[in-house]
Structure formats: C-alpha cells, structure tokens
C-alpha cells in the first residue's frame, strides 16, 4: 500500500471518531474531501503536510466533543430549570444526603483516626487501660523481637507554670506528660525547633528541661523564635525549654492533650508525682506505656510476649503464683482510645447510619428519575422521530442526572463542611482539657459523592436506555402514559413509595433511638441531692507544703470552713464525688480475711476513695449501715498497729461477703488490714460504666501525701440555700491560707454538667442527624408521592368526566396512599427493630436504653405519624388540584 | 437592527472571512472552498479539513451560510458532497467586514501620509 493510501485510511479512521451528529452532517463530505486533499497535500507539501493534516483532525476531535457536551449541559440546565420542583427536590436530597453521610464518616474518622501530629500511629499500641511500674516497663521495652521502641509516661500531670524563672508572675495551671526519654523517638515525631529527649541526654541529676507544644509556644510564648533556651518556672522550679513540638502535636493522648513534656528524670522537686522513687519501685504501677511494635508483629503476638515478660519478672521477684495478670493491648495514637470491640461497634453504627442515609438518597433519586423518565417518553419519541441519535439521547439524559448529582454534591460538600464546623465549635466534650479534631474527611466525602453519583447516573441511565429502545410510534400515540418497559404502571412505583417510607422510618427511628439513648444516660443520677453542694480543689504539695503541714491542713480545714456562715457542712475527699462516673485510676486488689488472717474471696479491681469525716452526711446520703469516719480516724494510720477503718459500697460488700453483714469484718489490701465500719449506697451506673464499681472508702490521712505528694484535696461543701457559698469559702481560704491556690471552684451541678457534656455532645450529633434524616425523608417521600399522584391527572380527568365526584376521586387516591403508608410503616418498624436489636447486641450501653426507651412513645408514634401525615398530604394536594381542574383540560394536557 | 445583527460577528475570524469570500461568488463544496482559499492567497492561507468543518458548523449555526439544494450536473456531481451558500446575513456580514477593513486601511494610510510630511 502506498503512503498516501495509508494516510487516507488513517484520515478516514480519525474522521469516523467524530461525534455521531457531526458525522451525520459532515461525515461523508469530509471523507470525500480527504480523497481529494490527501494526494494533493502529499504532492505539494510532502510528509510534513500530511502530518499537519492528520494533526488538525486529531486535535479538533476533543474540542468537537466538548462543544457537544457544553450543548448538552446547557440544554440539561434549561430542562431542569423548567421543572424547578423536580430539580430542587433532587438536588436538596442529594445535598443533604452527601453532607450528612460525609459528616457521619468524618466524625467516625475523627474518633478512631490518627491523632493530630502523629506521623505513623498504626504500629502504636498501649495496655488496655492499665498502668504498670517503671521496672516492668523496662522489661517490656527490652524485647527487640516484638518491640521496636517503647515509652512510659504519666499523662494528665498538672504543672503550675510561670513564664519567667523568678516569682514576679503568677503561675497558671497547664497539663503535661511526664515521659521516659524515648517518648518522642517512639512516637516518631520531630521537633519544630530545638531538640527532644534521648536516653543519653536525660539522666538523673541533670538541670531540669522541658519541651513545650506548638500550641503552648504560639499561645503562651507568642511564637517567640528565641523560645528554645528560655527558662520557665514549673511548680516553682526553673526549667529550660529545649525543644518545641511539631504543629498540632499535643501528645500521644489527644483526649488529654499535653502542652508540656518533662522527662521522668527531672526529679521530685519538679514533679511531686515522682516522689517515692517510682522509677525503681516495681509496686508503683502508675505509668502508661506506649509501644511501637516491630513490623509484622500482631497485637496477639505482642500480648503473648508481654505476658511472658510479666510472669518471668513476677517469678524473679518471688511473687505469689495467684498474683497473675493478663496484659491486654489496644491501639494507641488515635484521637480517642478505644478497644477494637468499641471501634468495631462505633464503626458498625456509623456505617449503618451512613448506609441508611445513602440508601435513602439513592431511593429518592431513583424514584424521581424513574418517574421523570416515564414522563419524558413523549419528548424522547419526538426527538427520535426528528432524527436524534439514540446514544445522543442517552447522553442527554445522563447529562441531566450528572448535573443533578454534581450540583447536589457541591452543595452537600458545603453542608458537610458547615456541619463539621458547627460540630467542632460545640463545647469541649470531655471535662478535662480535650481537643477533638472534627474535620471534614475528604476521603469520606469523595466516597459518598461517588456513590451518590453512581446512583444518579445508574437510575438516570435505566429510563434513558429503556426510553431509547421504545417504539416511537406507540409512544407518540399514547403520550406520556405509555408504560415503560419493565416498569409496571403502579406496581413498581408504589413499591418504591413504600420502600421510601420504610427506609425513612428506619433512619428516623434508629437515629431517634440513639439520640434517646444518649440523652437518657446523659441524665446521670448521682444518687444524692445536688442542690447547694459545691466543690473547691486545693493542691497543698504543689504549693510547697510539707507532709506535716498538709496533715495539719487536713485536720483544720473542715472545721474552719464549717465556721463560715454560708456553709452548713464541709468534708474532704481525694477525688470528686462524681469521679466514679468515669473512674480510670489504678484499681487495688482487696480480699476479705477472717480472724486468723486467711484470705477469703478476692476482688481484683476495687476503686479506693480517700474521704474525710462526715463525708456522706455532707453529701446528704445516709449510710446503709455502720458509721461514718470521724476526725480521729484521719489521725490514725496503719503504722500505729490498729486496723484502719474502711467503708464499703454495696457492690464491694456483696463480692467480699455475699449477703452477710460486712460491718465489723476484716479486709486486707496487700499487708494493710482494714475493719469495715460502714456500708454505703452504690452510685448509679453512668455513661462510661454499665455497673457500679466496687469501691472502698478509706480515711483521708496525711500518709496519703507521703505516698503520693501529687494528691490534691477536694473540699465538699453543703451551703446554706440562697447564699454564694463558693465566694464566701474562697474569701475565707484566702485570708486563712494565703499561700494555697484555690482552683476548680464549682457547684456540683456544674461538675456534673462537665461530666455529661460528652454525652450531651454525642446526643446533639444524633439529634442533628435525626432532624436531617427526617428532613430528607420528608423531601423524598413528599416529592415522590406528589409526583406519582400528579402523574395521574389524566386518569383523574377521565374519572371526573365519567361522573365521579370530587370526594370519590380524592378518597380513592388517599385510600391508596394510606395502604402504601401502612405497608411502608410495617416494613420500616420491622427493619428498625431488627437493626436496633443487632446494634444492641454490640453494646450494652444501647441495650440499656432498649429496655427503657425514654423517648419511646413520642418517637415510636411521632415519627411514623409525621411521615404518614406528610405522605397523605403529598397524596391529597396533587389529587385535589387534579380534581379541581376541568376534566377536559386534564384530558387535553397530553 | 439588521446592522446590529451583522456587527455582532465583527471582527471576523480570518478563516470565516475567507470562507465567506469563497462562497460570495458561487456555491461551493468543502474541498472547493479549501482550494479556492489556497489559490486566492497564493498558498499563504490553508484551511485544514477539520478546521474547515468546525467553522462551517458554527457558521451554519450562526446563520451566515446554509446548505444549498442545488447540485451541479449529474456527471460532475458526487452524492457524498455537500454544497454551501451565503445567506443574506452572511452576505451582509461580509460587506460590513469589508467596510471595516477598508476604514482601517484608510486610517492607516492617512496616518502614514501625515508622518511622511
């Protein structure tokens, strides 16, 4: 074949790639021109000319397609603008759906996703809510096969920080981590300035150093470039800043963000938490450990290795074989720490919500597009009959679907962004200084938008293909009422309306129940009268008190405060009276013992609370039996040989003594023996605890400060009604103990609100979701139903022409609507309960609400009623309009 | 009104101007237009096929040219060819463009003459 012939073949091939309509008009002409032009160009310009000729065709090709697409989009916009009802229902529904779905996924990612500023948290694990002693940590760390590196830390360590080394500025309270030198290298973060710690530089006896967070550097140090090398005053001692953390990094527990990082080698003067040499005491189980596992090591393998290390070390120390412990690991480095089970539950719950919303959006779209596809048969038939190509028509309909999806998607993305903005601006969800990253997760947005887009295209395509295959003549004759192929006149459409009703009801019920569940447990019942109760916190050791001074303070404080006229009663406590709601402190192991000192039943995890005299009387909860502590109990210590009095709560008493009366019985914790003198009521189960925790109350003695100088005092005050107790107490404390810093002065009610704000935050999310779900359901259901009825105008016209009365016609439509509502509600209830049962199987928190649905009647009747009313209204209004117009007009419309 | 319609197309794209000019004398098919332009400009302007048909399509949409039903004698005709002719609007647009070019030329000449003195 000669070169010009090859070129001509190529020319033809390129020309045939042009769009159908272009080829219809110019295809043959262009081909004919090629036959003339190729030899002519070849003879005149040679190869270069041919290249130019072919390049011209190839380069013009995309432009021609683009022009057609532009035309399609312009036409589609005109068509959609002509039916604003349809377009706005579809767009709003897609927008809300995409916005909500991406927000739900983003929230989930925010909870289980990596903590801000941590480059590679996937290989990080920590012990499942338990702490270990430093010598054990060192054993765990030195296992090169499983552990790449490890760090021990004390989290939530308060520091009194002043920005100058001298005492000219008042100190403010900041939280930080006391960390082993491997902290930063284990987490894999690099300093933004200065250096981090290392085992070589951090040795006992070195001058105190501190690393500050980026947030602290910006907010407190004014982003001072010369900050490294500056000296701060921490707990009254100078400490030099050696490094600044990377952006967004607030420690490995974002739930308890740290602004200051101090090495554990800094010594007791800087951190009273380190008194008693916990770095060498295998009994002081106060450290949290974060491991970076070696690549390829699973959590189960690591657990086995840790358990072997624990057993070996226990044996080396000659511990009793009953002293066995099972170490459980869980992922670390995420925003909120949770076990794999909790993550799985949250994931499932969020996924179900996400899928429901998305299904609803897709159903909305499908209904609308299918209904519309049916209606446009005539238009399509006309266009086909005047020569439009079928592929072009399909593309036209597709363009409309895509246009709807894209517009909806864009608005949805904006909505999701706004939703996340609102979410992160809500008050901090935990009582402690917490930062939750609530950002719109772009991956979630992309996924959701893609699925909505595919649904839009898919359901747009189905009628488009079906239409494009239609018999033109029949469609033209029959008008819009001709049935679609494979799309029964009522069956399928009615099925869709019923399914829509069912999915909507499911979504509203599930989100409603979840919101109800959270609202229910948000109402923590502390088990005592909270009115007039206030709390004040003191930290005498951090204010420079010696143990004997602190002991003196313990003795005089209740008496001094009781003398204040606004105070009816005052008592002391080591933690707040609501701490049991989310107690995470180290539990003790306690056993009962008989008179010969033999051990009876053991409880592995008992919370100990240190309380002062008349604690329960101050709270206003009478004991179930026995007596309260008295001032002399606080002076009494175990060293003096007499057994220490203790008060048990019901749960602890039950597990130690069964149904027997515990008063007067002996218990022991390690070598310490106690006599039970009182029995206290259980606190009510709360959000973070499904059962009351076994608790042993011990007298608040000075020995507590000797063992743990970081121990603070919480003063519980019952005030006289109608007085500002807190102000009076603050004034009294300032005059009697001017060197004490009073912090966290608040009423118990405020304290409770702090605790429950996380739950309130969660339920706010579900309430918002529920409202949007209802909105989405209303839009879809109303839109689809109204559309379905409006399409029956002709039928209604015929009925009217044949003598049907208006009320008969309206009744007919409403009866059919009611049947659909009934079927849909039944399906919806069934689905919702199945789903809820499945979810409760995952979580006892949800299970508790399922047993006592607080929002039950309102939700169970309200949700279906609203949806049913809406459906009936959506049936009635178009039916009424159809029956009001003259039958002839309705008949002629087509 | 008519003038406003035709002025909307001004200034004309070079290709459009040449196409209109080729059709001003007689009806032409695509290849004819291409050849005429080539010869008239002594090979300086060559409108390649895809460019030509893109322009023809837009000019038809703009109402400047239309397809002609008249065909040459059967022995000279190829049924695959399409013939195009000017519409009234097309002719007017061509006239207005010529006027515009003439005015610009005059302006330039006047300026050059002033400079020469």
What does this structure look like?
- The complex is a heterodimer of chains A (894) and B (117).
- With 894 residues, chain A is an alpha+beta fold.
- Chain A folds into four domains: 3-68; 121-331, no CATH class; 343-520 and 755-892, no CATH class; 533-753, no CATH class.
- Chain A contains 26 helices and 21 strands.
- In chain A, strands 2-3-8-5-7-6 form a six-stranded mixed beta barrel. A six-stranded mixed beta barrel of chain A has the order 13-14-19-16-18-17. Chain A has a four-stranded antiparallel beta sheet with strand order 12-20-11-21.
- In chain A, strand 13 and strand 14 (599-611) form a beta hairpin.
- Chain A is globular and about 115 Å long.
- Chain B has a three-stranded antiparallel beta sheet with strand order 1-3-2.
- The radius of gyration of chain B is 17 Å and the shape is elongated.
- Chain B is 62% helix and 8% strand.
- In chain B, helix 2 crosses helix 3 and helix 2 (14-25) packs across helix 5.
- The mean pLDDT of chain B is 87.
- Chain B has helices at 2-7, 14-25, 30-40, 49-62, 88-116; strands spanning 28-29, 65-67, 83-86.
- The chains are: A alpha+beta (894), B mainly alpha (117).
- Chains A and B meet through helix 2 and helix 3 of A and helix 3 and helix 4 of B.
């Amino acid at each position: 074949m000669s070169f010009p012939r090859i070129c001509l073949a190529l020319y033809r091939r390129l020309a045939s790639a042009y769009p159908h309509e272009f080829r219809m008009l110019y295809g043959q002409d262009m081909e004919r021109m090629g036959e003339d032009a190729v030899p002519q160009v070849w003879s005149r310009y040679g190869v270069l000319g041919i290249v130019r000729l072919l390049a011209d065709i190839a380069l013009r090709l995309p432009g021609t397609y683009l022009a057609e697409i532009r035309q399609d989009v312009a036409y589609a916009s005109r068509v959609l603008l002509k039916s604003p009802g349809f377009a706005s229902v579809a767009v709003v529904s897609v927008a809300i759906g995409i916005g909500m779905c991406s927000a739900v996924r983003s929230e989930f990612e925010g909870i289980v996703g990596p903590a801000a500023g941590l480059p590679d948290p996937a290989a990080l694990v920590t012990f499942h809510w338990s702490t270990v002693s430093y010598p054990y940590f060192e054993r765990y760390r030195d296992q090169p096969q499983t552990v790449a590196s490890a760090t021990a830390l004390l989290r939530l360590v308060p520091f009194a920080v002043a920005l100058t080394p001298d005492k000219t500025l008042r100190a403010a309270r900041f939280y930080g981590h006391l960390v082993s030198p491997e902290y930063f290298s284990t987490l894999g973060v690099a300093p933004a300035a200065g250096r981090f710690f290392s085992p070589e530089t951090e040795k006992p006896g070195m001058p105190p150093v501190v690393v500050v967070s980026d947030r602290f550097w910006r907010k407190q140090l004014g982003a001072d470039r010369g900050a490294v090398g500056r000296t701060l005053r921490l707990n009254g001692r100078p400490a030099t800043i050696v490094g600044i953390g990377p952006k967004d990094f607030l420690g490995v527990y974002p739930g308890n963000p740290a602004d200051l990082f101090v090495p554990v080698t800094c010594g007791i003067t800087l951190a009273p938490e380190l008194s008693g040499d916990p770095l060498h005491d295998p009994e002081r189980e106060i450290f949290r450990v974060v491991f970076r596992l070696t690549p390829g090591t699973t959590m189960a393998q690591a657990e086995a290795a840790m358990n072997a290390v624990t057993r070996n070390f226990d044996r080396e120390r000659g511990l009793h074989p009953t002293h066995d412990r099972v170490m459980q690991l869980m992922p670390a480095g995420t925003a909120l720490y949770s076990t794999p089970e909790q993550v799985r539950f949250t994931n499932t719950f969020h996924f179900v919500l996400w899928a429901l919303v998305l299904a609803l959006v897709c159903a909305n779209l499908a209904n609308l597009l299918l209904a519309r596809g049916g209606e446009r048969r005539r238009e399509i038939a006309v266009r086909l009959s005047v020569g439009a190509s079928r592929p072009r028509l399909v593309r036209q309909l597709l363009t409309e679907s895509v246009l709807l999806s894209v517009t909806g998607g864009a608005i949805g993305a904006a909505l999701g962004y706004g939703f996340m903005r609102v979410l992160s601006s809500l008050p901090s969800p935990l009582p402690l200084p917490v930062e939750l990253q609530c950002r719109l997760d772009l991956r979630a947005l992309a996924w959701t938008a893609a699925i909505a887009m595919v649904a839009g295209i898919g359901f747009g395509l189905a009628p488009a293909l079906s239409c494009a295959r239609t018999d033109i003549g029949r469609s033209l004759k029959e008008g819009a009422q001709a049935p679609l192929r494979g799309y029964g006149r009522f069956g399928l459409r009615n099925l869709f309306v019923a399914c829509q009703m069912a999915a909507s009801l499911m979504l509203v019920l599930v989100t409603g129940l979840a919101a109800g569940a959270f609202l229910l447990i948000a109402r923590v019942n502390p088990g005592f009268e909270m009115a007039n109760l206030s709390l004040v916190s003191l930290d005498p050791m951090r204010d420079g008190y010696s143990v004997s001074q602190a002991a003196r303070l313990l003795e005089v404080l209740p008496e001094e405060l009781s003398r204040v006229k606004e105070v009816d009663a005052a008592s002391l406590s080591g933690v707040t009276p609501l701490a049991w709601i989310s107690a995470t402190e180290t539990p003790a192991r306690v056993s009962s013992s008989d008179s010969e000192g033999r051990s009876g039943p053991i409880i592995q995890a008992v919370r100990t609370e240190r309380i002062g005299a008349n604690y329960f009387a101050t709270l206003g909860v009478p004991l179930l039996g026995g007596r309260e502590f008295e001032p002399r109990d606080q002076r009494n210590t175990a060293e003096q040989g007499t057994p220490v009095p203790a008060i048990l709560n019901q749960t602890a008493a039950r597990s130690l003594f069964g149904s027997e009366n515990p008063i007067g019985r002996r218990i022991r914790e390690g070598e310490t023996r106690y006599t039970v003198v009182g029995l206290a009521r259980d606190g009510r189960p709360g959000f973070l605890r499904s059962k009351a925790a076994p608790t042993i109350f011990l007298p608040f003695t000075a020995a507590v400060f000797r063992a743990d100088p970081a121990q603070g005092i919480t003063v519980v005050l019952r005030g006289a009604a109608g007085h500002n107790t807190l102000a009076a107490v603050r004034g009294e404390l300032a005059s009697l103990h001017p060197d004490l810093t009073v912090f966290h002065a608040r009423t118990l009610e405020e304290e409770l609100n702090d605790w429950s704000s996380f739950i309130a935050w969660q339920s706010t999310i579900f309430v918002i979701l529920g409202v949007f779900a209802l909105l989405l359901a209303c839009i879809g259901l109303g839109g689809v139903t109204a559309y379905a009825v409006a399409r029956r105008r002709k039928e209604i016209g015929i009925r009217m022409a044949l003598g049907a009365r208006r009320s008969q016609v309206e009744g007919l439509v409403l009866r059919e609507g009611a049947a659909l509502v009934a079927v849909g509600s039944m399906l919806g209830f069934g689905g919702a309960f199945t789903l809820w049962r499945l979810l409760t199987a995952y979580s006892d928190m949800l299970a508790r609400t399922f047993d006592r649905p607080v929002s039950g009647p309102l939700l169970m009747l309200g949700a279906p009623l609203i949806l049913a009313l809406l459906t009936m209204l959506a049936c009635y209004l178009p039916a009424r309009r159809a029956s009001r117009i003259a039958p002839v007009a309705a008949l002629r419309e087509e | 009104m008519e003038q406003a319609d035709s002025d909307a197309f001004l200034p004309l794209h070079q290709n459009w101007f040449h196409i209109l000019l080729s059709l001003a004398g007689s009806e032409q098919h695509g290849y004819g237009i291409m050849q005429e332009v080539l010869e008239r400009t002594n090979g300086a302007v060559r409108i390649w096929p895809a460019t030509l048909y893109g322009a023809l399509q837009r000019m038809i949409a703009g109402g400047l040219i239309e397809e002609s039903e008249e065909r040459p004698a059967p022995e000279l005709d190829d049924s695959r060819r399409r013939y195009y002719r000017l519409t009234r609007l097309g002719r007017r647009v061509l006239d207005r463009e010529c006027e515009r070019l003439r005015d610009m030329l005059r302006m330039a000449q006047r300026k050059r003459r002033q400079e020469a003195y």
